[in-house]
């Protein structure tokens, strides 16, 4: 997927994270600010990068501000931000799950 515009998903509430993405400069530029960075920073990075890989995104600047989010929340926020950034607002992979 090609990132077309900046996008944000998530909040700064406890147990959530805010993911901000924008078009990259030919690579994945990853930034993390977390209240639990010393305990879980490696895992947060792993989940975010795996999610980007699953979405075939390799040219992106991604910043995550984490307030203790679980892996599933991190994954959902990264996916949401990516789909917003590519302009795909219909035919989302999770639409069948919500209806």
Overview of the structural elements:
By secondary structure, this protein is of the alpha+beta class. Helices cover 37% and strands 25% of the residues. It is globular, with a radius of gyration of 13 Å. Helix 1 packs across helix 2. The chain has three helices and four strands. The chain has a four-stranded mixed beta sheet with strand order 1-2-4-3. A hairpin with a 6-residue loop joins strand 1 and strand 2.
Which structural class should the secondary elements be placed in?
Answer: alpha+beta
Terminal Cα separation, in Å?
Answer: 25 Å
- Give the integer mean of the pLDDT values: 92
Run of helices and strands: EEEHEHH
| Secondary structure: number of strands | 4
Low-confidence stretches: none
Provide a count of the helices: 3
| Strand arrangement, major sheet | 1-2-4-3
Helix fraction, binned, reads 25-40%
Question: If you compute it from the alpha carbons, what radius of gyration comes out, rounded to the nearest whole angstrom?
Answer: 13 Å
Strand content: 25-35%
State the major sheet: 4 strands, mixed
Q: What keywords describe this structure?
A:
single chain; 99 residues; alpha+beta; 4-stranded mixed sheet; 3 helices; 25% strand
Record the SSE blueprint:
Elements: E1 7-10, E2 17-23, E3 28-34, H1 37-54, E4 60-66, H2 71-85, H3 95-98
Parallel strand pairs: 3-4
Antiparallel strand pairs: 1-2, 2-4
Helix pairs in contact: 1-2
Can I get a quick summary?
The chain has 99 residues and is α+β, with helices and mostly antiparallel strands.
